[in-house]
Amino acid sequence: MHPTRSRVTRRALIVGGGAVVAAVAVAEAVDLRWLPGRSTMYRTLGLDGEPGHIPDVTPVPTTSGSFVSRARGGRTVGWTIAAPQSDRPLPIAVALHGYGGSHRTFFGNGLGYERFLAQHVARGGAPFAVAGVDGGNRYWHRRADGDDPGAMVLDEFVPMLEQRGFDTGRLAFTGNSMGGYGALRFGGLLGPRKVRAVAALSPALWTSAGETARGAFDDAEDFRANTVIGRQHELDGVAVRIDVGTGDGFEPAVRTYVDGFTTTPAGGFEPGAHDNAFWRRMAPQQIAFLARHLHA
């Protein structure tokens, strides 16, 4: 605007628009990672998008139980399976929980996958089962104390699912946060001969050992041995989907990870935090992705 036509005085700009300008400046600084507290700022400014909701439908049947895991040093491990009625063996997705979660994380009032799955099937989607299992807070790999939730999943739980009549020849992994990391790790370890798809929700990733949360890895050597960053090629031939919110503290590392693929994974980055509201919003797309590739 030409200066002679402006009716906004310098004082009015400072007093009247100062708060708006400051808010925009702070938001941009946080977005560019100049300031800490990105997740909090996004939530405060209402930038996380609409929350997802568990559908109000009759859920598919669930079954729960437990077993004693040799890989986890004799710990009793709980599990839950949600499976639509079927006359044929169903393909199955193993759902790995995040830090502080359990085999129930993907079900009930948590993420409600037994209801999302029922909705998916009712709308004509291909059926499959979802199975959750307890991994503790050990980031789904062998730890220095001998606890190995990774071996528990691959050597004990998956064979148990096969014994229960599921088609583990059509296997997928999914997970949220710590479990998203675990799903990507297992998909890379087993490769396309054994895994059809991986669908990760807000995977807990770091680009260096010095950035990791306390307890995620034993030390820098453990991080280097088990990080998925730099190992994207191990997922060649596996269908991969990764969804993360732009208000998620893990978003920068996940973006680095996604950029390391030769073929960009499905999913992407959209408004959301590191919480159930975002994970429930993404659940229908994640389930449709898994169904499509489990039946490919």
Description:
This protein is of the alpha/beta class and 296 residues long. The radius of gyration is 22 Å and the shape is globular. Helices cover 34% and strands 18% of the residues. It has two domains: 3-35; 62-294, Rossmann fold (3-Layer(aba) Sandwich). It has helices at residues 10-31, 38-44, 113-122, 149-163, 178-190, 220-226, 251-259, 276-294, and strands at 62-69, 75-82, 91-96, 129-133, 167-176, 197-201, 239-245, 266-270. Mean pLDDT is 90; it is low at 1-36. It contains eight helices and eight strands. Its EC number is 2.3.1.122, 2.3.1.20.
Name the CATH superfamily assignment of the largest domain.
Answer: Alpha/Beta hydrolase fold, catalytic domain
Domain module tally: 2
Amino- and carboxy-terminal Cα gap: 59 Å
CATH architecture of the largest domain: 3-Layer(aba) Sandwich
Report the sheet-strand fraction: 15-25%
Structural class per helix/strand content?
A: alpha/beta
The CATH class of the largest domain: Alpha Beta
Low-confidence stretches: 1-36
Describe the oligomeric state of these chains in a short phrase.
single chain
CATH topology of the largest domain: Rossmann fold
* Number of helical regions: 8
Catalytic activity: 2 alpha,alpha'-trehalose 6-mycolate = alpha,alpha'-trehalose 6,6'-bismycolate + alpha,alpha-trehalose; an acyl-CoA + a 1,2-diacyl-sn-glycerol = a triacyl-sn-glycerol + CoA
Protein name: Acyl-CoA:diacylglycerol acyltransferase
Keywords: Acyltransferase, Hydrolase, Transferase
InterPro entries: AB_hydrolase_fold (IPR029058), Esterase-like (IPR000801), Mycobacterial_A85_antigen (IPR050583), TAT_signal (IPR006311)
